[in-house]
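[job 4471] stage=fold_predict status=RUNNING
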Amino acid sequence: MSGSAESGNGPAGRADTDERLQRLEVQVEAVMDALEVLAHGLEDGPAAEPGSMSAEHAARRAHELLLLAKSVSRPQPGS
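[job 4471] inference complete, writing structure tokens
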């Protein structure tokens, strides 16, 4: 069914869809990067030396990556 009930018709709708898709791609990449950092930080596992900060640093870095992606992908007012 095609018609005015569908959202995203016309150039303005297409631009909005493209922008949302681009934001989603940035967010997915950020999640993938964060997971990679976490996995790398946890590779040592329970046998790691006591007091090892790699997991803590990985968690902090993953959180920073997610916060950065969230701020970059958030739509700007008036856009």
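[job 4471] summary: Helices lie at 10-41, 54-73.
[job 4471] exit 0
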